[in-house]
Every structure is written in structure tokens, then in C-alpha cells.
Request: fold
Amino acid sequence: MKGTLFDRQDLLPLDAKTILVVEDDRPTGEVIQLTLNEELSVHAFLVANPYDALDIANTVNVDLWIIDYLLPGMNGLELYDRLHADKTLQDVPFILISASFSLHRHDLGERKLIIVVKPFDLNVLLDTVKQIVS
Reply:
């Protein structure tokens, strides 16, 4: 099964970082996931809705979250707030991606988020992720 939490485990170093991409646009999410896995040798996984992300947060030690703003059922800031309320996740970095930050800029407040605006250059995202996980 493609993109599960267990495939590629034997191909990566034991200390490879785990990144969870929460993106409901499947093609966009798959490009991000594949690029991170291939270029940075990380464990990057993709989920399409915030509720799956919340479930994974209870079972997997995620080193970086990449969250789209517009998600079904709750937006990326609401997901961030729910995840960040868990004391064990307060120091985990989060990247929030969206095409509509100008509309939501006032909602960002004091949250500890790295913002990436769509459309984005994959090299910029890779550089940002590299700085965070290295």
C-alpha cells in the first residue's frame, strides 16, 4: 500500500525524520510527499483530512507537520490549535500552506507557524524543510 507508515522503513536511516503532510488535494499532497521522500530521505506520509492527522498524532512521533489551510471539516489553523494543545507537540514545528493567506492573516496571531504560500516553488519548500529537520 502506497504511503503507509511502514513502507520504505528498511530503505531509510534509523534516524530519518517523520513528516506528516495534511493535504486534501491528492495530486498536490502526493507531489509534496514524493519530493520530500526522494530529495531529503525522510519518512513523509500523506493524509487527506484533519481527523486522520489527529489519529496519527496519538500513535506516531511526527517531527514536522505540513498542513494545508483549507481542509474538510476543520481548517489548518484549527488542526494546528488542536495538535498544539497537546503538550508533547508544542515544540514540534508546523508549516501551514495556503493560497489564501491574505484572507486569513489576522487569524495567524501568535501561533508558531512557518507560512508557505501556494503556488510555491518545491525548492523553497525543500529548503525550508531542510532547515527545520537538520
In short: Helices lie at 26-40, 50-57, 76-84, 101-108, 122-133. The two ends are 29 Å apart (CA to CA). Confidence is low (pLDDT under 50) at residues 1-9.
